[in-house]
C-alpha cells in the first residue's frame, strides 16, 4: 500500500465513525444548559467533540476557547473565526491544544487526551463568516478503537436539506449569556433545520447567506448556541443509526434570540476542500 493510499483509507474508514461510547445512564430531566436551554449530555454520547484551548501570547492560558470536531485519527475541524477574529489572528499551531475525550471540564476523568496542534489550515477565502471553516492536524494520531472514549464523526455524503431529518443536535461548553460562565459539563440541544431563506431574511443586513451556510435552530428562542460553542458540531442522525456532521457552529443572534435561528458552516459544501487539504 502506498502512503497516499494509506491516507485515503484512514480518512474514509467509516465503520466506527459516528457511534457513541456512552457508559452512564441519562441525567435527570430538567437540567438547563449553556447551549441555551439545552440539557446535560450523557457522558460518551458525543465522543468526537473537541475542546480547543488557547495559550494567548499576551494574556496567557485562556483554557477553553472554542469547540471542534474530530473527523479522523489526526484531523479535526473548527470555525475559522475561532482563530481569526476581531480580537486576534492566531493561526499559530503552538498556541493551541485539542482536548479530546472530555465531558466535565471541571473534573479530571482520566479519559481525556490533551494533544498539541501541529498544523492549522484556514480556508483561503474566509471573511465575515463566509467560508468559516478551518482544519487542525494533531501532533500525533489518536486511537479510535478499543477502550478509548474518543471517536470520529461521520462526514456527509450528500447535501442535507431541511426536510430530510428531524434529529439534529448541537453540542458545546458555551456560555448561557454573552458574559456568563462556560458550562462545566458538555451540553446539547436538539435544533430543527430550516431552508436557508429563513436565515437569509434574518441576517442579510450583516452576512450574505450562501450555499456554504446551513440554517438551523428554534425560532422561539427556546434553545440555541452561544459564545464558546463556535467551532463545535451540529450532528444529525442517519438512517443506519450513525451521526453525520452536518455543520460547524458559526454565528447567530448572540444567544438564542427569539426569531433568529443559528447559522452553521455546511459540511457537505466543503467536502472537496477538506479532502484536498488532508490528502495534499
Automatic annotation (TrEMBL):
Record key words, sorted: Disulfide bond, Hydrolase, Protease, Serine protease
Positions of the UniProt region annotated as Disordered = 1-28
Q: Which GO terms describe its molecular function?
A: serine-type endopeptidase activity
Its domain of life reads Eukaryota
**Residue span, Peptidase S1 domain:** 35-279
Which InterPro entries does the entry link to?
Peptidase_S1_PA (IPR009003), Peptidase_S1_PA_chymotrypsin (IPR043504), Peptidase_S1A (IPR001314), Trypsin_dom (IPR001254), TRYPSIN_HIS (IPR018114), TRYPSIN_SER (IPR033116)
The record's Gene Ontology biological-process terms are: proteolysis
Q: What is this protein called in UniProt?
A: Peptidase S1 domain-containing protein
Organismal lineage: Eukaryota, Metazoa, Ecdysozoa, Arthropoda, Hexapoda
Amino acid at each position: 500500500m502506498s502512503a497516499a493510499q494509506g491516507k485515503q483509507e484512514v480518512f474514509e474508514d467509516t465503520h466506527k465513525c459516528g457511534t457513541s461510547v456512552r457508559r452512564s445512564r441519562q441525567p435527570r430531566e430538567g437540567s438547563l444548559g449553556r447551549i441555551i436551554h439545552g440539557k446535560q449530555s450523557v457522558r460518551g454520547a458525543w465522543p468526537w467533540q473537541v475542546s480547543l484551548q488557547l495559550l494567548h501570547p499576551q494574556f496567557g492560558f485562556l483554557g477553553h476557547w472554542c469547540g471542534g470536531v474530530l473527523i479522523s485519527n489526526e484531523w479535526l475541524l473548527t470555525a475559522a473565526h475561532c482563530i481569526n477574529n476581531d480580537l486576534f489572528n492566531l493561526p499559530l499551531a503552538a498556541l493551541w491544544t485539542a482536548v479530546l475525550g472530555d465531558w466535565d471540564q471541571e473534573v479530571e476523568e482520566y479519559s481525556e487526551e490533551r494533544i498539541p496542534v501541529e498544523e492549522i489550515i484556514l480556508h483561503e477565502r474566509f471573511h465575515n463568516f463566509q467560508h468559516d471553516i478551518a482544519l487542525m492536524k494533531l501532533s500525533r494520531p489518536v486511537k479510535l478503537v478499543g477502550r478509548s472514549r474518543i471517536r470520529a464523526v461521520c462526514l456527509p455524503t450528500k447535501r442535507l436539506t431541511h426536510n430530510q431529518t428531524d434529529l439534529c443536535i448541537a453540542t458545546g461548553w458555551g456560555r448561557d449569556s454573552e458574559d456568563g460562565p462556560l458550562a462545566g459539563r458538555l451540553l446539547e440541544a436538539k435544533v430543527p433545520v430550516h431552508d436557508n431563506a429563513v436565515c437569509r431574511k434574518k441576517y442579510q443586513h450583516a452576512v450574505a447567506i450562501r450555499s456554504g451556510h446551513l440554517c438551523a435552530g428554534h425560532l422561539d428562542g427556546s434553545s440555541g448556541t452561544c459564545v464558546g460553542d463556535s467551532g463545535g458540531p451540529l450532528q444529525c442522525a442517519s438512517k443506519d443509526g450513525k451521526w453525520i456532521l452536518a455543520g460547524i457552529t458559526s454565528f447567530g443572534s448572540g444567544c438564542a434570540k427569539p426569531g433568529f435561528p443559528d447559522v452553521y458552516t455546511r459540511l457537505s459544501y466543503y467536502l472537496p476542500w477538506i479532502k484536498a487539504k488532508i490528502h495534499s
